[in-house]
Specification:
heterodimer, A: alpha/beta, Rossmann fold, seven-stranded mixed β-sheet, 9 strands, B: alpha/beta, five-stranded mixed β-sheet, 12 helices, globular, binds thiamine diphosphate, binds iron/sulfur cluster
Chain lengths: 251, 352
């Protein structure tokens, strides 16, 4: 009988530590499926962040190395320049990439480094207990915006993908959500396209994935998935933000 | 050749494949030398990073891939590099960091100082770790120490710091290079270069299991003990019959040497002990000298940092005086000569 669904080859058998309904586990699965399909496992190196996905190396069955909080893009840059044949990706949360690592990601993008960023936007700091992130929506309550994010005091949700898209070094950016089957399929295509962009040497590629954090949003998994679809996507519209690869839309 | 460029050429000849830097005086000539000589070199990489934080993390990335990687900076930039140095130490990755130090605290002055001694010899960043610290005293030694730093970093799998200062970085002296740049750049065995023909691997410091972190700390500690035994280096000058010993490192040791020579001409029994490795520090040799010599003078271009190590080494066996010029003021050899003479006669020590 033909096998139509199974565990991706490069996802280890270790059970995930992620909360029920968390987007990280889905995203891990998507990336490892693409690595398997593209047969790049022998030259992939992943750089996980400080964040809930800090232990990504327990799950990805490819070479990986820890990065200090927010420095993934710089680490990936150094690695790729040292070993250009590698396929290098960073895996970063929104605190990691859009707060402490802002400078690194902007300059990595601007230099057009041939690396791929997977940017998991869950609108909070998951690992440290649900504090406000630069991506937190206006009025959203978090442990450090207990009365809701007030843009007059805390600023507005930071849209890093739109910010860096105009940079000439950026070849491809797409924003997806991993909360519906269609969204998961689109994410997978985007992940593949991002890797292809890197392998073709076209410059910096990034996939921003809207991802639920039910625990810190104080929602059930189902509610959190609906919140992504109904609320988050209004602030963070889905779709291709930049495509300078000359190969058309990934979706 | 100026000291900064010499460090660059020394690194290239040691097989340095990746250099990442950020401009800061008085080490700019080093970054510029690497820009001119690395960016077009086959297989080599040069990036002017967006910050020292980014530069050291690029070094970490390049070291993961098994290449010889280096960054350089001066004091304020060294503060920013500490995060990355801690991760390199915890991940047991080699790297070379050159500090052409200047006066602090804060932005301080751009003139030579030795006030980063504590930062360099005590780890500098967070966590229980050390870095090997080499202290050149001439442009020739900058070349030699930079080469040695790469070898030591690979041998012990840890970051190594070459701690020079603005004066050594800027001054020009004739140098000899004893190595040709290698044709094939060295790649460390067991580097993380993709799971090809072997199971996947990961490099990290983070674990939720505290006993793993404890084990890492013990294993680093045991390595550091071995390094103390095997790598401690110093230079002794006229200490055999000395009644007073000056302890100084780097450029200060060079000034002190001139002063000691002149004091000898005056008939004073003075010697010089220069630690070449600041960590590991030559505690034993200084301690042994303290069994015989009762007066020491520590001279530093700071308010007295190595002073504490000398005191530790001597365990109250001898009297330790201190003379320092902090903040970027450059003392002269004759100034040190005066300090030596004054102390010598004040203590009633005998003439030759
Ligand atoms: C220098 C430094 N500062 C702070 C932290 C603490 N810290 C760990 S993860 C994190 C943020 C995590 O949020 P995010 O990047 O959004 O990832 P998530 O956990 O939501 O996936 C912080 C602040 C750290 N590890 N290092
Ligand atoms: S805290 Fe949020 S991001 Fe972290 S594992 Fe739980 S659901 Fe996922």
């Amino acid at each position: 009988m033909k096998k139509v669904f199974g565990r991706p080859r490069f996802l280890k058998k270790t059970p995930f530590h992620y909360c029920a309904g968390c987007g990280h586990s889905i995203i891990h699965r998507i990336i490892t499926e693409v690595i398997e399909e593209m047969e790049i496992q022998e030259r992939v190196i992943g750089i996980p962040p400080a964040g809930c996905s800090v232990f990504a190396y327990y799950y990805f069955d490819v070479d990986m190395a820890e990065s200090a909080h927010g420095r993934g893009a710089a680490v990936a840059t150094g690695y790729k320049r040292a070993y250009p044949e590698a396929v290098v990706f960073t895996y970063q949360g929104d605190g990691d990439l859009a707060a402490i690592g802002t400078a690194e990601v902007i300059h990595t993008a601007n230099r057009g480094e041939n690396i791929t960023g997977f940017f998991v936007n869950n609108a909070v700091y998951g690992m440290t207990g649900g504090q406000m992130a630069p991506t937190t929506l206006c009025d959203q309550t978090t442990t450090t915006s207990p009365f809701g994010r007030d843009p007059r005091m805390e600023g507005y949700p930071l849209k890093i993908s739109e910010m860096i898209a105009p940079l000439n070094g950026v070849a491809y950016i797409e924003r997806t959500a991993v909360t519906t089957p269609a969204g998961i399929r689109k994410t997978k295509k985007a992940v593949r396209k991002a890797f292809e962009t890197q392998i073709r040497g076209l410059g910096f590629s990034l996939v921003e994935m809207l991802s639920p954090c039910p625990v810190n949003w104080k929602m059930s998994p189902l509610e959190s998935w609906q919140w992504v679809e109904q609320v988050m996507t209004k602030e963070y519209p889905l779709g291709v933000i930049k495509d300078a690869t000359g190969a058309g839309n990934a979706g | 050749m100026d000291g900064n460029s010499a460090a660059g050429e020394g690194a290239i000849r040691a097989g340095c494949q990746c250099y990442f830097g950020y401009p800061i005086t008085p080490q700019n000539e080093l970054t510029e030398y690497m820009a001119a000589n690395m960016s077009r070199r086959k297989g080599c990489a040069f990036i002017q990073a967006e910050s020292e934080v980014a530069a050291i993390n690029m070094v970490y990335g390049a070291s993961l891939a098994g290449t010889r990687a280096m960054t350089s900076s001066s004091s304020p930039g060294m503060s920013l590099k500490q995060e990355g140095i801690s991760y390199l130490a915890g991940s047991e990755l080699p790297a070379v960091i050159v500090n052409i130090s200047r006066g602090g605290p804060g932005l301080g002055s751009i003139a030579a100082a030795q006030s980063d001694y504590f930062q360099a010899t005590r780890g500098g960043g967070h966590g229980d770790y050390r870095t090997i610290v080499l202290a050149p005293a001439s442009v020739q030694e900058i070349v030699d120490h930079t080469h040695m730093a790469f070898d030591l970093a690979d041998k012990w799998l840890m970051p190594v710091i070459v701690l020079a200062d603005g004066m050594l970085g800027q001054m020009k002296e004739p140098v000899q290079f004893h190595h040709e740049a290698p044709e094939v750049l060295p790649i460390r065995a067991n580097a993380l270069r993709g799971a090809k023909g072997r199971p996947s691997r990961f490099i990290r410091t983070c674990t939720s299991n505290v006993s793993e972190v404890e084990d890492l700390n013990w294993s680093l500690f045991r390595r550091y003990q071995l390094i103390q035994k095997e790598e401690t280096a110093f230079d002794a000058f006229e200490v055999e019959d000395a009644e007073m010993i000056v302890v100084a490192f780097g450029i200060a040791a060079r000034m002190a040497k001139g002063a000691v020579k002149n004091a000898r001409k005056d008939g004073l029994r003075v010697g010089l002990l220069r630690p070449v490795t600041l960590w590991p520090f030559p505690y034993d040799v200084i301690g042994e000298l303290g069994d015989r010599v009762k007066q020491f003078l520590v001279f530093e271009m700071s308010m007295g940092q190595m002073l504490e190590d000398v005191q530790l080494a001597l365990k109250n066996k001898a009297e330790v005086s201190f003379y320092g010029r902090p903040g970027g003021v450059i003392p002269t050899s004759s100034e040190v000569h005066r300090v030596i003479s004054r102390l010598y006669f004040q203590k009633g020590l005998g003439r030759l």
